[in-house]
Structures are given as structure tokens and as C-alpha cells.
Amino acid sequence: MPEKVTWEQINRSGNKLLAPAYKSNGHVFTSGSVGSDPVTKEIPEDVAQQTENAILNLEHVLKHSGSSLDKVFKVLLFVSDGSFGPIVNEIYHKYFPHQPARSCIVVGFPNKKIKVELEAVAEYKELDPKL
Q1: What count of other Cβ atoms lies within 10 Å of the Cβ of residue 92?
Q2: If both were cysteines, with which of 35, 59, 71, 102 could 54 make a disulfide (CB 3.0 to 4.6 Å apart)?
């Protein structure tokens, strides 16, 4: 049976219509992580900073789900403009040097400030309840 990861479990507030992740059969499936600042929740104008923030937000969800960026084997990346590719790829490669499978789709986000969003599938291990 899939196990829901809640906003409370990852110590963040979020969209109450969805879970930040689900775990099943040794895998964690995340919802999309956008480039908002993890502390202020502000969305920076700069696509490079949004990309960095989105990956750090994803890393936070993975960590609190018993996984990590190096356990990611599939990424779905959304960008609002295809011309952002070189900037996004430069930052992406710093965090994913192991080159997980990836798709990249150009989309129109409902919030026009958002330029980058990613979701991932990763392996996980059970967290030690003493941590």
C-alpha cells in the first residue's frame, strides 16, 4: 500500500490538495517542486536562482522521505521558456552528475512568476525513527 508523505513530516506548509510525495515498493514519487525561496517563500525573478531553489526544495522532500538526490533515477523538468535550457542544465548538472533519466517540457504555469518546476522518482530506505 502506498504511504503518503505529509507536509507535517517534511516540516513545510504546502498545497493542501496534494501530498509532497508518496512512497511505495522502495521508491519515492515526489510532487513538483518550484523555485520559491525555502525560507521567505518568495519566487525570485532569476531563472538560475529558481532552478537552484527548486532542486533544494526537491532535496528537502527527498531527505524527509528517506532518500536523496543521488538516489533519483527519473526527473520530470518543466520550464516556462525553452531558451532557459542552458542555464537550467548548468545548475541541474551540479546536483545530478549521475545523469538520471529526464524529460523536459515547456509549459505555461498558472503563476507567471514560476519558470522552473521538477518532480522526481527515487529509491528510498526507511528512516531511523530515532533521528
Answers
A1: 22
A2: 35
CA dihedral 56, 60, 65, 66 (to 10 degrees): 80
Can you tell me the distance from the alpha carbon of 115 to that of 113, in angstroms, rounded to the nearest whole number?
6
| Contact yes or no for 35/116 (Cβ under 8 A) | yes
For the chain, how big is the Rg over CA atoms in Å? Answer: 14
Q: Say if CB 7 and CB 64 are below 8 A apart.
A: no
Domain locations along the chain: 3-123
| Helix H or strand E segment including 30 | strand 27-30
pLDDT per residue as tens digits for the range 102-119 = 999 999 999 999 999 999
Inter-residue contact 21 to 65 (CB < 8 Å): yes
Decide yes or no: CATH 3.30.1330.40 for domain 3-123. yes
Residue with cell 498558472: 110
Question: pTM here?
Answer: 0.90
Closest CA to 47 of 102, 92, 93: 92
